[in-house]
Amino acid sequence: MGRKARGRRATTVALLAATVTAALAVGCTGSGAPADDGRGQARTPAPTQSPADPVSRAGSVLAVKIDNVRAARPQTGLNSADVVYAEQVEGGLSRLMAVYATELPEVVGPVRSARESDLELLRQFERPTLAFSGAHSKLTPLINKAPLDAQTPGKVADAYFRDSDRASPHNLYLRPNKLLSSAPGEDALTTGFRYGAAPEGGQRETSRTVRYPAARFTFTWSADQGRWLVSQDGRPTVTTDGKRVAPATVVVQHVKVRQSEFSDFLGSNSPYTETVGSGEAEVLRDGRAYDVRWEREKATDGTEFTTNDGAPVNFARGQVWVVLVKA
User: Which residues have C-beta within 8 Å of that of residue 151, sequence separation ≥ 6?
Assistant: First the structure.
């Protein structure tokens, strides 16, 4: 990272921290976790649990659930993610899961709550660290049993802070270096993604729009940047440092989306996005679109993307966005 980029990032951190007028206890529930959106409380550690030890988890990826409604934008730290998953949540809205392996930003957020389908998605990684604000009370036991390291504000309070310039619950932020001592490296990305030369064929593509019932993603190819410029709900997606979010590869993955056993405080069912199985997908890279097949035989596997004749599909080097859309 260049000196100017580091300076801008440090400035962002300082501005965010300066706006915090109270400690994490502001807006907390009786459990000691910050108030979320009514979908449940962050789990409280047992008395025997010790404070988080970032050194012990340095070999795992960091996955952060990131708020993606309009009130949560612009987000912080999104451009540092290696992979960004977009999923549908209640009311047809979207939420992001950012996965960090090669770089840890100083701040990430706003952080929001986890969903049941996150557990299946994260099984592809070796005991990942999951940062989230809380979860439905009935989902918490499943999270506790999952092979991951769940890190909530109720467990590691000093890793989180609130920005008083933003309205709750869209103002909770994470300091990743409080959870991991360093970025684990590219080898921790056991997604099954391959990088290299583009496959033959494909069609020229300058723009692709993906719709959820109440959210819209548009990816526009920039030949100058060699990246897909992200817009959401008709507005350019930028981070708090003013940089446009621009992945090198976009995957539109058609999956089964069904009802889960959980609902939010308004009674809206939480969709369950199935990422184990097989189906169709489109890979956008280098200004072209490729119709491909995806397959993930079991939860501990990464996802393979192949052409119709079975040849593996390479992605372009750089950030990958995977938009999980109902088949």
Answer: 52, 129, 130, 131, 132, 159, 179
Dist. CA 137–CA 128, nearest whole Å: 21
User: What is each CA distance from 89 to 13, 118, 263, 324, in whole angstroms?
Assistant: 29, 11, 10, 11
Is there a contact between 103 and 80 (Cβ–Cβ < 8 Å)? yes
Name every residue whose Cβ is closer than 8 Å to that of residue 282 and which is 6 or more positions away in sequence.
208, 251, 252, 289, 290, 291, 292
The tokens of 309 are what? 């004749």
**Three-state DSSP class for residue 150:** strand
Q: State if pTM tops 0.85.
A: no
| Phi-psi category of residue 78: left, alpha or beta, with phi > 0 → left and psi -120 to 50 → alpha | alpha
- Residue 171 CB neighbour total at 10 angstroms: 24
Query: What is the maximum span of the chain, computed from C-alpha positions, in angstroms?
Result: 59
H or E element that contains 3: helix 3-18
Distance in Å from the first CA to the final CA of the chain: 39
Report how far residue 125's alpha carbon sits from residue 128's, in angstroms, rounded to the nearest whole number: 6
Digit-by-digit pLDDT tens for the chain (327 residues) are 544 444 444 444 444 444 433 333 333 333 333 333 333 333 333 333 334 454 444 479 999 999 999 999 999 999 999 999 999 999 999 999 999 999 999 999 999 999 999 999 999 999 999 999 999 888 999 999 999 999 999 999 999 999 999 999 999 999 999 999 999 999 999 999 999 999 999 999 999 999 999 999 999 999 999 999 999 999 999 999 999 999 999 999 999 999 877 766 666 778 999 999 999 999 999 999 999 999 999 999 999 999 989 999 999 999 999 999 999
